[in-house]
């Protein structure tokens, strides 16, 4: 059984063993734990508790047209989702969404990333525009940039080493994936353009210190709320021409975005905003819940790290004042950036000694003493992860 990557389908017929007492999961009962990917199943209990508050009912004759609003620049964007996105950002205070900003919805933020690469490049240039990002970088950026073998743009590596007197696009993720650091642009020379990815700039992961106000910003439903399967992302764009070109890209590549998915996203985002604005609501709002849960997980992980006899260590993050919570808070990134002691390949060590599948440092442009571990798995998987990490002895060099 591979925990966290492959799930076994449940047959429709009643299982003959369904009433049996389930044995607790232990080190030996599940051979492999896969925490290489950031599948945000951590939030399932919260949304299960919400029940009918998130239910969406769609009649058979609804959403049959391609168009949501033919008069809107993003003609496939549901007005309900546009309003929910702007409302939630205003409530949280993590991004500027004034009425002069344009919202472009996409099939996840990956499609919007491609739309921005297309938009910020030019068919009139003699050479493809260079795309860079500062190492450590999100592992998917190089792969996604190279995937289509476009004649418009090309991957050019580490922004810290970029010294060409040529136009470029810099991709900035803040908080960063994999290490959770807060970032800005490295290159600020003439002819440069930037894409700012704010996937993890939400209160459960980091203090909200200011409203981001960049030319092009990406956000994703999957990391904000945990609904990765809905495949909704959005861009906040200042320039109308850039927004229009992005819309054209999505029109050509997928003829818009599912209106059913947008309606679900609007319902969930609206519920979160309402609960945040109404402190009298019984129980925690979503961000309070998420921040508490992430803080508890990081506390447990650091406790294991301190007892590991130096086999691995974790980054330390400065506390900062969060304008959303109104207090000083810690960063609790979605991923743990583990570093093993010198001479050990951290990814191989975890795999060979503890059967933990992670994503090693070379995937992010650094050496093999580092590896990335997801903090977003289900409770049973996370507890197994802690159990396995606590048992690591560092006796396998993994090189």
From TrEMBL:
Pfam families: Alliinase_C. Gene3D superfamilies: Aspartate Aminotransferase, domain 1, EGF-like, alliinase, Type I PLP-dependent aspartate aminotransferase-like (Major domain). Residues 33-392 form the Alliinase C-terminal domain. Keywords: Aminotransferase, Pyridoxal phosphate, Transferase. The keyword Nucleotide-binding does not apply. GO terms for molecular function: carbon-sulfur lyase activity; transaminase activity. Its cofactor is pyridoxal 5'-phosphate. It comes from the Eukaryota. GO terms for biological process: amino acid metabolic process. The keyword Cell cycle does not apply. Belongs to the alliinase family. This is Alliinase C-terminal domain-containing protein. The lineage of its organism: Eukaryota, Viridiplantae, Streptophyta, Embryophyta, Tracheophyta.
